[in-house]
Design goal:
The complex is a heterodimer of chains A (67) and B (144). With 67 residues, chain A is mainly α. In chain A, helix 2 crosses helix 3. Chain B has 144 residues and is mainly α. Chain B folds into 2 domains: 70 residues, no CATH class; 73 residues. In chain B, helix 1 packs across helix 5 and helix 2 runs antiparallel to helix 3. The chains are: A mainly alpha (67), B mainly alpha (144). Chains A and B meet through helix 3 of A and helix 4 of B.
């Protein structure tokens, strides 16, 4: 399973879900679904997130031991 | 041969990604509500013979319009939800079509109908839908 620390990264950058969604050109619900681990984003979106937060993708997304 | 397969794949992808603008969603919803209201209203007046099939067809077109319309922000999450909902609709539609005639038969039988019948009118539509799905899947797999 894939987990993420998007909420933490958002808090560090002090951006709301809505602002992040606008930056990435997706809906707020998409950001919310990713944060709640209900949706695994595409590589493109993951790379865009990494660019926005200025950290490598594997610092935002990590595979848990279940897989 | 390979070129023609790839061209076929591109054509299928173009059709698969076809969507109506977001504004069509409202048109579809209001049309559906109007048609449902007309379907209810026609029960209280002498309806012409063509009214029922015409309204049924228009309702399907209006609902298809809602289904094919883009969301305000059409992103990858929406695309995945759309694909999931179509998959469920497809499977549930097939199950409904397979089970419903037998429920009708059972109800007819219980109510003492003289000639209870199993209506298999859905059969051509189901076979067509399944064939289209299988052919599209096969073609996309070959050309991806």
């Amino acid at each position: 399973m894939l987990k993420n620390n998007l909420k933490v990264q958002r808090a560090i950058k002090d951006v709301t879900q809505e602002e992040l969604a606008n930056l990435l050109g997706v809906s707020r619900q998409t950001i919310n679904s990713i944060e709640k681990n209900r949706y695994v984003p595409s590589t493109v979106l993951a790379l865009k997130l990494s660019e926005v937060f200025g950290v490598p993708v594997n610092e935002i997304f990590q595979l848990t031991e279940e897989e | 041969m390979r070129d023609s397969c790839e061209a076929e794949g591109r054509r299928i992808r173009r059709w698969i990604h076809f969507q109506l603008p977001h504004s069509y969603k409202k048109v579809g919803i209001w049309s559906s509500l109007l048609i449902i209201a007309l379907m209810i209203a026609k029960r209280f007046v002498a309806e012409p013979i063509w009214a029922k099939p015409l309204l049924s067809s228009l309702l399907i077109v209006a609902m298809l319009m809602v289904s094919l319309s883009k969301e305000k922000i059409e992103d990858e999450w929406i695309t995945s939800l759309r694909a999931l909902s179509y998959r469920w609709a497809f499977v549930m539609g097939v199950l409904y079509a397979l089970i419903q005639p037998y429920i009708n038969y059972a109800v007819d039988f219980i109510l003492g109908s003289d000639q209870p019948q199993v209506d298999t009118g859905y059969f051509p539509v189901l076979v067509f839908m399944l064939l289209v799905q299988l052919l599209c899947f096969h073609q996309l797999k070959r050309t991806s």
